[in-house]
Amino acid sequence: MSEELHDHDRGLSFDLPTLQRRKMIRLLAGVGLVPLVGCSSDDSDSSASSSSSSGSASSSASSGSAECETIPGETAGPYPGDGSNGVNVLKESGVVRKDITSSFGTASGKAEGVPLTVTLTVVDAASGCGTPKEGAAVYLWHCDRDGNYSLYSEGVTEENYLRGVQETDAKGQVTFTSIFPACYTGRWPHIHFEVYGSLEDATNATSITATSQLAFAKDVCDTVYATDGYDRSVQNMGQLSLETDNIFSDGYDQQLATTKGSVEKGYTATLTVPV
Asked: How many CA atoms lie within 13 Å of 217's alpha carbon, on the beta-carbon side?
C-alpha cells in the first residue's frame, strides 16, 4: 500500500560497493584528484511553465565532453517486475510499447494522473557522452498516483500498467507516455529504469547494462501534487528532501530530470543516461 514505510526500497539488489565507489570518487574530487563532469541536461532548468519539450536531453549527446561519468547505479527496489523479485513482466507479450498508462495482455486497468512524457537519451560514456547508443533498450517503471506499484501493491497485483520497454533510436532516445508518479512514504518522487544492451536482452531479462532512477524537481512536484488525486503526496513531500532521500542523498545531479510543461497540457521530463 502507498502508506506503508518504504525504507526497504533499497531492495534485495542494493549495491553497497556502488555507493562506496561513488562516495570515494566524490572524496577524491574534493581534493582535486578526479574531475567530476555530469552528462545530463541542465539540471537547474526545471520549471512549471506552460512550454514543453520532449527532446531537450539530446543536446548533451551532440556536444559531448572530455570527461563523462556513467549514470549512478541505484537499487531496482522491491517492485522491479524484471524477475529479480518474483514476477517477470519483461517476458510478457506487449511489454514493448511507448504508452504505459494502461495495462496490457489480460489486464485492463489504466493509471490516472497528470500526463507525463519521459524521454531518456542513452549515450556512450567512453566517448565523452558524444555518441548515442542506438539499438540499446530501456525498461522503465514507476508507481501510480496513489503510490502503488502494479504487480505488487494490494489492489493492483493483477495490473501491469506504468511498465514498458523500448529500443533506442538513432539518437539514442526512448520516449514513454505516462502519468506523473506519486510521492509515497519515505521516498522522493522518482522513476526507475534499466538499460539493456539490446531489445532481445531486455525482453529476456538478461545482461543489464545499468540500473538507476530519475528524480523530479521540487517546484514541479508541488504544482502537480496540488491537483486532485495527489492528496497523499502533499503530506509525504513535506517530510522529505532530495538531500535526505535514502537514494539521492549521496548526489543527484545526473539524475535530476529537466521537466517542463503544465498541469493542463502535461509535462515532459528529459534525462541523458551515460552508460
From this structure: 21
Can you read off the three cell numbers belonging to residue 73?
Answer: 547505479
Report phi then psi at 67, rounded to 5. -120, 140
Residue 193 contacts residue 174 (beta carbons within 8 Å): no
Closest CA to 196 of 89, 90, 109: 90
Three-class DSSP category at 269 = strand
* Mean pLDDT for all residues in the chain: 83
DSSP code of residue 89: G
> Which residues, listed in sequence order, are joined to residue 123 by a DSSP beta bridge?
132, 274
What is the tens place of the pLDDT at every residue in 137-156?
Answer: 999 999 999 999 999 999 99
Pairing of strands 131-132, 115-124: antiparallel
Instruction: Please give the torsion angle defined by the CA atoms of residues 236, 241, 242 and 248, in that order, rounded to the nearest 10 degrees.
Output: -60
> Is residue 119's pLDDT more than 70?
yes
Exposure of 193 by Cβ count < 10 A (0-12 exposed, 13-18 middle, 19+ buried)? buried
Cell numbers that stand for 177 in this block:
507516455
On whether the CB atoms of residues 272 and 129 are closer than 8 A, the answer is: yes
- Looking at residue 196, its amino acid is Y
Predicted TM-score (pTM) of this structure: 0.79
